[in-house]
Amino acid sequence: MLDNTLPLLSQGYAWLPDLSRRQGPGAVRTRLLGKPVIALRGPAAVGFFYDEDHVRRRTALPEPVLSTLFGKGAVHTLDGEEHRQRKAVLVTVLKDTEGVAGLARHVAEEWERSCKEWADRPRVTLFDELSVLITRAVCAWAGVPLPEYPEGEARRTAQDLVAMVDGFATAGPRHWKARLARQRQEKRLARLIEDLRSTGQEPTAKAADGATDADAQPPSVVAAVAFHRDADGELLDPRTAAVEVLNIIRPTVAVTWFTVFGAHALHRHPALRKRLAAQDEDYARAFAHEVRRFYPFAPFVAGLAPADIEWHGEPIAEGTMVLLDLYGQNHDPQLWDSPYTFDPERFTGREPGRDELVPQGGGEVSQGHRCPGEDVTLAVLSTLLPRLARLDYDVPEQDLRIPLNRMPTKPRSGFAISAKAEQEKGTQ
Questions:
Q1: What is the average pLDDT score of the chain?
Q2: Which residues, listed in sequence order, are joined to residue 229 by a DSSP beta bridge?
Q3: Shortest CA distance to 298 belongs to which of 382, 373, 359, 217?
Q4: What integer is the mean pLDDT of 316-341?
Q5: Kind of pairing, strands 28-32 and 300-304?
Q6: Across 75-80, average pLDDT
């Protein structure tokens, strides 16, 4: 088997689906960095991949990914009871009655604030501004104070959180920017954890403009992580606790990518705008699902075979890297009619199967490795995309191409608009 590291780097998202087409039906075999790899796709493969008897994550994530995207010691690196204990605190926070719904309210409030700011500017880049908007919202919701920076209290933090995602799958300046961003934010949040533990009291989130300190909501997320006890009964060390706080706020800010993709879809398919702008929660959720299916986000997830195993008659030797082809599955014609057509109707009136739609991975949330932030992603998208559809704006001439050889990708221009927030239509 030829090593496919260079083709992966040059083709990006298209690499594994292209390799699958050339090798034919079934599992795909190759090598990456000289190591044997087998790649799978399909709902049955999802169940196989997330069974810890088949695939383990503990040693599968390379150091460059840990030092940028997830953080060393993160829940993503654990298996078995350690993973379940650590993940339980994240799931509990997000399932709390004020969890996802409370975050969505913060996002809606920050949308109003941002539209007022955009109204005074002739042109804004949606990617940059939405990252700041979501950073403000998730930090206020999580109880993470935003430090003062010359460029604005939220903008520097947003830039760091975006850099962690933008630089994990590449080398060079983007990667080193991501490393420095993570180091900066981990140190800041570790100090916050230490201060919280020393006082035994939750810090109060900064009150919104025009509100009093009494109106500020006490944080729950940062305190839940700060005082969580791991499987050994001990508190997390401050740096690891900071990593897990980042693993709540960083993926939330990563919804920026999907939101900009939603703007791209509205631009390409303006006939969909009217229905999305209406107060139709089912269609807004269907539109969000289709954005997540159609546009490229994570190309695949990886783990290691802990022993000699077998997949549908295919032997998999111990230590083989096992890939689950997310992008390929989300565009598989055996699963989706016209998979390269953007069509929210495919999700109206139904939720996709657990292991069918896998833009952020698959499996089961509470006991497995499935991302617990999927509900957050859908809530943020269902909040922002209808409001975006109701916003009256122009799309100036720009480069809106989405290069598949860049991971993670986005419209090259970041999607600039000529803001007309004061003319927003419909009821917010």
A1: 87
A2: 235
A3: 359
A4: 96
A5: unpaired
A6: 69
Phi then psi for residue 207, to 5 deg, are -70, 145
Q: Which residues of 339-357 are buried (b: 16+ CB within 10 A; e: fewer)?
A: beebbbebbbeeebeebbb
Distance, in Å, from the CA atom of 38 to the CA atom of 259, rounded to the nearest integer, reads 32
Domains and CATH numbers, the chain: 5-423 (1.10.630.10)
Of the two residues 105 and 231, the one the predictor is more confident about is 105
Backbone φ and ψ of 394, nearest 5°: -105, 155
- The winner for highest mean pLDDT among 50-54, 211-215, 268-272 is 268-272
Cα–Cα dist 356/341, whole Å: 17
Closest to 352 in 3D by CA, of 276, 294, 286, 282: 286
Structural element, H or E, at residue 336 = none
Beta strands in 270-382 (DSSP E): 300-304, 309-311, 314-316, 321-325
Tokens 């089961």 identify what position? Answer: 364
Residue of 330, 347, 404 lying closest to 46 (CA atoms): 330
Distance CA 15, CA 407 (A): 12
- Whether 415 and 126 have beta carbons less than 8 Å apart is answered as yes
